[in-house]
Amino acid sequence: MLEGIKTIPAPAEVRASLIRRSASQKIGRPTRKSRPFLLAAAVVAIIIAATLLLFARRNRLAGGDLSEPLRREQIVESVYGIGTVMANRSYQVKVGVANTIEDIYVQEGDSVFKGSRLLRLGGVVIRAPFPGTVTSLPHKTGENVFPGVPILGIVDLSDRYVVVSLEQRAAMRTRRGQRARLSFETMRGESYDGTVAASYSNEGNFLVRIDSPGLPPQILPGMTADVAIGVGENRRAIAIPVAAIAEGNVRVRRGSAAPFVAAIKTGVVDGARAEVLSGDVREGDRLVVPRKASP
Question: What is the CATH topology of the domain spanning 61-73+235-290?
């Protein structure tokens, strides 16, 4: 019955309109099959956000944040001071009566051996008493020298120690044999071991001598060092943040229970951490660390 009927092609603008309408339906509107997947993705995103928020709130309490779980660890208390590098052996040439320098065999900065010729005075040759470096030679050949005036100086730069000036309270806690750490301003990435050799006073200053045989050659007498002397140590201490302590008390959270206040007594303090000697604080507890007030 349809024979003889011809199909009339749609105009170009009609075909273009149909194509655009079909594309917009595919891109802009989700199909019935895709809607369950989008709903599931939205639910998962909400669950993740809620979990993160809950975790953040568990670690933040009124007035503070929770510390990491407490554990036993080594804690060392130190006293600090500025030290000066000194030489164990130094030598100066002086005369007892006025004399004239007849000859000089060295110059400043020279390394000498034991027995090396240094200079000649009144027909007598002065020789080095030990290996070292000539650090002072203020006179020249032919000059007159007088009693008590240094003519030449030698220092053994390989044999050094450090003298530290401490406050009275810190000096009272130092003992022979305590370990020390030395660092130098121009060598911040390095530190060197030392040992307390002696504590003494000199004209109202409280001084500690640190032996440090491992100092490198570039560390010279007269240089200054930052020195930390270990005066207390506990290798198995329950260490807590100093910032969590307020008037001898801490707020403790044990498990999921509400925080409670515990009175504590502290021992060794290393600056940021303190050893707990007594009080209801256990391994695994978390402490409330007060937040710093906003400026």
Answer: 2.40.420
